[in-house]
Amino acid sequence: MLVDGVEDCGVARWSVMKKKWFPTSVRTAGNLKDKWRNLLESYTGNAERSCYLHLDKKLIERIQKAAFNNPYPKPRCTDEW
């Protein structure tokens, strides 16, 4: 469901995602952000193999695609004058 939420809401909208995708969960918006960060570290080549969870290959592909489409941390806009 977290991958669905990121695909729908993007990153940096954790409170919106919490209300829409996890309304009855005891997890906080910060918990969702931390879980996403951990999934990114594990499945975008930034973690040791011992950190991997055993997930379905299609789910891993969705995580990688969502990570590409929704970079985290979200780049900040800079106004250069």
Automatic annotation (TrEMBL):
This is Myb-like domain-containing protein. SUPFAM superfamilies: Homeodomain-like. It comes from Aegilops tauschii subsp. strangulata (Goatgrass). CDD domains: SANT_TRF. It comes from the Eukaryota. Transmembrane segments: none annotated.
